[in-house]
Amino acid sequence: MELSVLTGDIAAQSVDAVVVNLFEDVDTPGGGTGAVDAALGGAINSLIANGEIKGSRGEITVIHAIGDAYAGFAPDRVLVAGLGKSEDFDLDGVRSVSAIVARRLRRLNVESAATIVHGAEIDGLDPGASAEALAEGAILGLYRFDKYRTSSKPKFDETRPVTLTLVEHDGSKAPALEAGVARGEVFATASNAARDMVSEPANVLHPTKLAEIATAIASEGGIEIEILEQADCEALEMGAYVGVSLGSHQPLKFIHMAFEGDAGDPENNLWIVGKGITFDSGGISLKGGAGMGAMKGDMSGGAAAIASMQAIAALKPVLNVHMVCAATENMPGGGAQRPGDVVIAMGGKSIEVDNTDAEGRLTLADAIGFAKSKGATRIVDIATLTGAMVVALGAGHSGAFSNDDELVGQMIAAGATRGEPIWRMPLDPITKRQNRSDIADLKNSGGRGAGSITAAHFIGEFAGDTPWVHLDIAATNMGRSVHDWEPSGATGVPTRALIQLALDLGS
Length: 507
Ligand code: BES
Ligand code: MN
Ligand code: ZN
Known about the structure:
2 domains, binds zinc ion, Leucine Aminopeptidase, subunit E, domain 1, eight-stranded mixed beta sheet
């Protein structure tokens, strides 16, 4: 889909369909909706008066403007999108409406469409930000992953809509709208790239493939990348990470990408660390069979981290941004580590492997150890870390754990800006004791109670005093259309929040 911005009259566009909108409780629409209503001889007004159009959020009314009566009006269809109550309308509302409209345009087989910019007229919403959210909503909302279907293809033409033009009568707004659309495209395209990685089955997307995807993104964006092999990781004494990989025939790949946005000040940095378990069988502490297939998505944190670098390379914040993904499978092969094994993480801490299914924290320990050894001043790790997170917060929020009020505040704000909600969880000294081992410095499982918190405490041991945020995305990485811009399946969360954080820190 091609998005563009045009200054002009929405009622005078030669397109297959035009999109206008209506807030709830408005009887006489003005602006672009009023202009289209006049061109339709008052059809929208009549439908409001007789109660068919209510303006409620998510409502789409299709009016067909076909026949001699509409000779002066080019589009065959008008879509009236309900926006709900104006006082409740925000950028999430723009993303939602835009996604719903885009899917309807596709189902209507519309090739070219023009739309007014939802929200650009109301107080408190910046027109550029509205255009940005509109672009994000449309691109995210049209996402689908059906490359493996050879029959029973969807009943729509997947190339539609081909063009979507944002039409604004006030020409002074055009530069802001154009910049917004361009930014929205970058954010949404990155998120869709993360969705693709998460959706790929684990037989295709093994660590080697993930490293190839990261390499392609790095060369596209002109940024640095290095891939460490098992021997390199052994030389760096990453015993915790290497231990996880031993039960798999797939070689591990330690992926490190770097965007240099502030060469003069290397300390002005952000290290994004994504969990990259391309399949989590549990290892010798084997998981039950039910739902195990979802564990192809156990690299969702890594996918978001890698994909965010694509956007960061394009948007160029004044910040040095590094990405680390310690990719491996967690399999129960003959070489696999056993419950009860002791491994030594980079930096020397010993860990009793109480449960081989608590593998994410082992890989993150060494990924964070690596980041610290390279001078990280801020670390954000993202991981599908615990089933307990699904129980605690469900799909409503990703959980955040942190040793730094400022950084976690910035992370939560970035999530709110992008409609990727984040809720802070505690790191209390009581539950921290659950990670004590009888024979090593730490054990990798803290038992049933507070499972997400003990996992975070474990990672916190390796972050130390460096400002650090851990995001547990076990319930938000895949879902059933929690938001209108998320078709069911991989959400891409928190790719857009990470990009936003980098922009906020580097502006
Ligand atoms: N990848 C899982 C966590 C997970 C579970 C993500 C469900 C998404 C949905 C993680 O590696 C894991 O297995 N965690 C264990 C830890 C336990 C053994 C201490 C868990 O949460 O049960
Ligand atoms: Mn596991
Ligand atoms: Zn896992």
